[in-house]
Design brief:
single chain, mainly alpha, 73% helix
Length: 96
């Protein structure tokens, strides 16, 4: 496989992992909320709690993904296996 195909497959795989992590975080929070907090709170709070759970799962996924990428960047030589997503910009002439 060439670098461009590796890059495309990595981006697709990383997106899938990111979405699965977000769903798992949301479902875990939803189950914990439903088991412990929902019976004690008024029903009007449920919609706000779901919104907070959703935003919290997005933020939690960001931090988890950032940690995983930091770990992988120490283990994998990115330049060897992947091509840059965005090409180098046009070189600007140096001012003399």
């Amino acid at each position: 496989m060439n670098k461009k195909l590796n890059t495309v497959l990595f981006v697709l795989g990383a997106t899938l992992v990111n979405m699965v992590m977000m769903i798992l975080l949301f479902l875990t929070g939803f189950i914990l909320y439903g088991a412990f907090l929902a019976p004690r709170l008024p029903p009007e709070v449920n919609s706000i709690a779901l919104l907070i759970l959703f935003i919290g799962s997005i933020i939690g996924t960001y931090f988890l993904y950032h940690r995983i990428m930091g770990y992988l960047s120490n283990k994998v030589n990115w330049d060897k296996y992947f091509s840059p997503l965005f090409g180098r910009g046009p070189s600007r002439p140096k001012d003399e």
